[in-house]
Design brief:
alpha+beta; Lipoxygenase-1; five-stranded antiparallel beta sheet; globular
Length: 171
């Protein structure tokens, strides 16, 4: 009889402790947006990816910086937004180094938990448009970055299609 009582108590203790761990693991699950950029950057530079939140504006506080090191090989840059940030739009600043004349971008993909906006193999082009500092260079087969009136701010801005896709990722 005592053995049954002890066995029952151990079983209950095991169930209670494992249930508590399950809840603990669930509360630790992060809710993160990740932007993955694959490209070739011939010179050292710094990428800045902005996220526009509801009612917000484009500002440095709503951005993440990543260094990019000079290489003629394709690089994968992974940028995680802060936990619980749900962007309405995304802007990718292609650098600050004014001597960086060209970049090649192969992929800009966005992931929210297990859902993905796949921008690989130039599919990102249907989600982003360039500003006046970025032009397509058919000889280089990549983007030419330019200084205009002593200003340098090359970026790719998310369009309405990206905004719609970002809304779908949230739910």
């Amino acid at each position: 009889m005592k053995l049954r009582i002890i066995s029952t108590c151990l079983l209950i203790a095991l169930l209670v402790s494992s249930c508590g761990k399950k809840e603990e693991n669930q509360t630790k699950k992060k809710d993160i947006f990740t932007v993955t950029i694959e490209g070739i950057f011939a010179k050292n530079d710094k990428l800045q990816v902005f996220y526009l939140v509801e009612g917000g504006e484009w500002k440095d506080e709503n951005s993440v910086f990543r260094p990019v090191y000079a290489s003629n090989e394709m690089q994968k840059i992974v940028i995680n937004f802060p936990d619980k940030v749900f962007p309405e739009n995304i802007r990718v600043d292609l650098g600050y180094n004014t001597t960086q004349q060209n970049v090649t971008i192969k992929n800009i993909s966005i992931q929210h938990n297990s859902k993905i906006i796949d921008g690989d193999f130039d599919a990102y082009k249907k989600y982003f448009y360039t500003n006046e500092f970025v032009t397509w260079d058919p000889n280089y087969f990549g983007y030419k970055l330019s200084t205009i009136n002593n200003q340098y701010d090359p970026f790719l801005m998310g369009n309405n299609e990206l905004k719609d896709e970002l809304q779908r990722l949230k739910f």
